[in-house]
Amino acid sequence: MTRKIGTALGEAYYQQKLFDKCITSLKSELPVLQGEEESKAVFLIAESYNYLNDFDQASANYLRYANLNKNKPEERFAQYGLGWVYHKQQIYHWSAESFAKAAKGDDETARKALYYKAINEKLAGLFPQSMSTFEEFGKKYTEGIWIEEAYYEWAISSFDRNRKSSKRHPQLRIQYWQYLP
């Protein structure tokens, strides 16, 4: 009975954004937790460290969560969290890789992960991959959140890529006026 209270207390601290207390509470319970309870505690610990910008501990706990959920749909949540850990550290190519792993599926997490994969590819300077991912996003999702943002980012990326390539290769310059109504 007291073990359930301990994990409930950790969850309550997490919901109240008292991340240090959440970590302390859940870490004290980890030695006796198993299965789904252990997995949930590890995930909340990882998320708490992520919010506190303790990237080493966040990464370690996301990887532990991934190992506890190997080949299960829940493994994607660890990859999504790692994507943010790498993004916050401006390691955009790793962030894009983690978001790519989280983008498998057809739920809210997959949608967000695919969008953030494209954003991080763009930030990493991987413009062709970014353009391709934005296009994939646009084909896969025709309504709902981030549609306008994805089209906007795609358009800006396309413009930037064309502008940069036209300086090096003037013969590739697109005449934008021809697309105006």
Low-pLDDT runs: 168-181
Instruction: Note the quaternary state here.
Output: single chain
User: What is the typical, i.e. mean, pLDDT?
Assistant: 87
Run of helices and strands = HHHHHHHHH
Largest sheet: none
Number of helices: 9
Gist?
This protein has helices at 2-15, 19-29, 35-51, 55-68, 75-88, 92-102, 108-123, 127-140, 147-168.
Provide key terms for this protein:
181 residues; mainly alpha; disordered C terminus
How would you characterize the overall build of this protein?
- The chain has nine helices and no strands.
- The longest helix has 22 residues, at 147-168.
- With 181 residues, it is mainly α.
- The N and C termini lie far apart (70 Å).
What topology does this entry show?
Elements: H1 2-15, H2 19-29, H3 35-51, H4 55-68, H5 75-88, H6 92-102, H7 108-123, H8 127-140, H9 147-168
Helix pairs in contact: 1-2, 1-3, 2-3, 3-4, 3-5, 4-5, 5-6, 5-7, 6-7, 7-8, 8-9
